[in-house]
Write a structure and sequence with these properties.
The protein is mainly α. Helix content is 45%, strand content 9%. The chain contains 18 helices and eleven strands. The strands form five sheets. The chain has a three-stranded antiparallel β-sheet with strand order 3-4-7. A two-stranded parallel ribbon has the order 1-2. Helix 14 crosses helix 18, helix 15 crosses helix 18 and helix 16 crosses helix 18. The longest helix is centred in the C-terminal third of the chain and has 23 residues. The structure holds glutamic acid. The site of glutamic acid (GLU) has 9 residues, from helix 6 and strand 8.
Amino acid sequence: FILLIFYMVRTRFAPSPTGFLHIGGLKTALFAYLFARKNNGSFILRIEDTDQNRYVKGGMEQIIWSLKWAGISYDEGPDVGGQYGPYIQTQRKDIYQKFAIELINRGFAYYCFCSSERLNELRKYQNEHHLPSKYDRHCLNLSKEEIKKRIENGEKYVIRMKIPDNEIIKFHDLIKGDVEFNSNELDDQILIKSDGLPTYHFAVVIDDHLMNITHVIRADEWLSSTPKHILLYRYFGWDIPQYVHVPPILGQDGKKKLSKREGSVSVNQFAEAGYLREGLINYLALLGWNPGTTEEIFTIDELINKFDLNKCQKAGAIFDPKRLDWINGQHIRKMTLEDFSNRVIEYVENYKKDDKRFAKVLDSNDLVSRFMIIEKQRINKLSEIEDDLYMLDFDYKYDINGIFNAKMGVDKDNIKDILEKSIDFIQNKLIINYSVREDEESKMKEEESIKQQFVSFITDLKLKNGQVLWPIRFALSGKDKSAGVFELVWAIGKDETIKRINASIAKL
Ligand code: GLU
């Protein structure tokens, strides 16, 4: 007869709610998500909040917000439910207790009544004598009667797992390869703390098992804890999941994890800085994974398609903001004009609404539409529209000295003359055609036509392009760096162009 085995890939992201979600955490979540989606499996969000000392209020909401922002959807989790819930560990307290008692009864775990004073003394002694700091198994052999008595007396206790002596624990990690640890390096790990809650190490094993997780994809800082977890699976007689330890994002020194000291690290900071989810996700996927080709720009669907754990590197990758910016810019170029405009509006509404100059972007008029077309070609992240807001709201308080460019060989009187002649040309000769619905193509066509007209005007004056175009562009933007002069003339129109040039003349 035919035996049908249903094997369904299930991965999870299991963050602790300790504050904002670090982009390293998002990268780990992304790898687990891509692997699940690629294999038509399920991706689960589980909140590991049993360490009450590290708990931060609102931490879970931050994690959920960040995953949603990034477009990483989970099939089961605290806010969406699922058949393996609850998905918040503190709500599963009773489950762990039962399994801990089972291990005690089978001789794989024991009660420990040692006070923190005693443990501190022990640690101090071990430090002073250069011994590994490990629990000395003081409570390993207490009699049943004694344990019973001490519990009844209300003494505080923890439950520890018994680590076997001198055993080599081997496993195969899909990124790190074959790994082995000697059990002598392991401490008799606390499984249940004196507050009755499980430690991470215990809860993670119980939950990954009960939630049928097939691939434990997590940060590689947990690699050295894995042998403890493997022992627990063995004690229970459960199947051991496949381990996948993802390397971290490194700071500039190439050694330590990217940290706050180096700038933005949390997902919400990247959102606020104007990165697109598409750009950040694409960049994070390439930090540690490569498709084996020179291709660099991927949509999330393309990533799902191409993602392969065998092409992940073992070592961490240094965070490179320039590459992130470039990739993000490529995603902006690729969007439709409508999507781009909507993203800009959404961005301004979320982060800049109270800024009067940014708020101009929310007006709906031809100028804003033309602004969007120009920006879509220019910026790498949405916040960069700030540098070009002079198009929508011109601040006349600029320093006129920027209009003199040393290389041009024209003085103040020359410039005045040039600007006056330009006004005459713009007013009486220059033709700008506007389409009913401008798009990138119509803009480029018109920009080219404006350029041709300017070039022949400048040739007639027997001047060099820069001698005319620099002062005009500066008069229109008040800046050394801005959008191109032809697209600016096109965007703000003849009247506004003339008005701004006149203002410069008045300052000369
Ligand atoms: N709760 C752990 C953390 O915050 C998760 C480790 C794991 O995925 O097993 O990093």
